[in-house]
# Entry
Amino acid sequence: MSEKEKKVVSIGSKSKKQSKSNELPPKVELEYCSFCGRPNTMVPKLVKGPGVNICSECTLIAVQYLILQDGALSAEAQRIIDMLWGTKR
# Structure
């Protein structure tokens, strides 16, 4: 799997089979974040949903907004943040 193929994560689709080492990788389709408009070539990761995409950077902004909006984290939100940032409480 090429580096560009690893940048796009599809939700609800079957994983692609690994290509043989002597085959050329398939041409990667350019995808864009529905929020900031940047292509998958300019962001660390892009998650594809049904009719909408979100990059990892916009996801972090959304999580930060939700934390500030609520003022306190639910146990589930804290678990996810700990997993992402490798912190333990």
